[in-house]
Amino acid sequence: MLSVYTDFIRIRFLTMLAYRVNYYSGILIYSMNIGVYYFTYKAIYGDAGSIGGFTAAQMTTYVAVSWMARAFYFNNLDREISTDIRDGSIAIQMIRPYNYVLVKFMQGLGEGMFRFLLFMIPGMAIAMLLFPVTLPSDPVAWVGFLVMLFFSFLINTQINIITGLTAFFIENNEGMMRMKRVVVDLFSGLILPISLFPGWLGTIAQWMPFQAITYLPGSVFTGRVKGVGIWNVLGIQIIWLVVLLVPMIIIWRLARRRLFVQGG
User: Model pTM?
Assistant: First the structure.
């Protein structure tokens, strides 16, 4: 069975490779996003030494690595699952000799591997040429960041799967998927670092799983979190990974009992 699941990783990787031109344009779009944030923060900082615990140099690096990390952990599994449910193909998937949810994880991983090699790495190289991005000098920071980046993928994928599975109960979850994307981008720290949130909103964000997707890995990469602190924030990611498993498993079990097919 292990070889079956690894085949899903390989197939999704090769599928993404067939449409790689789309991702070359995506690198340019992400670079433009970084540029907009860079010049905006440059104007905001002015002569200020630091804002929200970030120096101007750290903020530039944070913005660049956050957007390029998104290139790795981002996927549309929620939309894929919702489509499977609406067109009835989920019924065929569920009688096959594998776990549907685990297959989606493997497909997401195959897409993530493609995005890491052909989107994130070249995109980060271009960002370094265009903007004053500072790479970590501590090997521990590199190891911590790469491990946390993988957990970012896992947590984001869990949230996407949970969102997609809600289509079993509300049939059309398009609005929920759009809301989820906005909430994740905002409270993960992609649009604005959580340390810049107002006090009450920052407190709320710290009790949500979204900070574990972007803000915590970005804080490690920029050097705001060092030494033992790296493993402490990794612990936060592990906790959220375990916590999110509970609703995902419960929703999947309830969904299998409730399945009905719309259309063909």
Answer: 0.93
